[in-house]
Amino acid sequence: MVIDALFIFTAFLEIIKALPLTLTVTIVPLLAGLGIGLIIAVIRMYKIKFIHRIAEFYVSFFRGTPILLHIMVIYLGIPMVYDTMADQYGWAFKSNSIPIAVFVIIAFSLNSGAYMSEIIRSGILAVNKGQIEAAYSIGMSSVQTIRRIIIPQAFAAAIQNLTNIFVGFLHASSIAFIVSLKELNGAANIVASSNLKFLEAYIAAALIYWGLTIIVEQAAAWIERRVLVYEKGV
Predict the structure, then answer these.
(1) Cβ–Cβ contacts within 10 Å for residue 104, how many?
(2) pLDDT over 70, % of the chain
(3) Buried-state track 1-35, b at ≥16 Cβ within 10 A, e below 16
(4) Are 45 and 196 in contact (CB under 8 A)?
(5) Could you tell me the pTM of the whole model?
(6) pLDDT tens figures, 92-117
(7) Residues 212, 183: Cα–Cα separation, whole Å
């Protein structure tokens, strides 16, 4: 078997058209997950009555089950619940009008929130307790201490872990093809199906994923250098 190098280039140009969708189902869930994770981490750290048990269950469930199952449960479950309510209350809008990407983003966001909460929690634990006590001693409230002292340093300590989860979700977006979402992996399958040159199409997709990963890692390294310079007071 001979690899068709020309088709790799042709497939690359076709597959990269799906890049905006891939970045959307990667970045949007991570931003949503960051917000969810921050709330969950604070709830668990301060052991807010009753709620922290729910938060612990949420983290345990979403970290303990595959993201593929989250996609399928959300993709199949939300339309079922929504259409039942639509029939009951006479809503004209049906679930089949909701883009598939929305279900994928919801599933990824919930999964991301669980992992983000652990990353943020570990970052918070890395903050020197003396600084927190100093903040209280000068009259800062708990909210001010969290916002001005804890959160900035927690994120600085979590840069590498945040980079890893970004790369992980970028690669995990490829499984969204199972619900017919045309991201990079889905585009590769569609391009290859025209002439059965799947190897070439997958090589082209791999090159795109690899390039994106390198860009993310370089950006994270730059941010980390800037943070370290700031911490050293240079």
Answers:
(1) 26
(2) 97
(3) eeeeeebbebbbebbbebeebbeebbebbbebbbe
(4) no
(5) 0.86
(6) 888 888 899 999 999 999 999 999 99
(7) 14
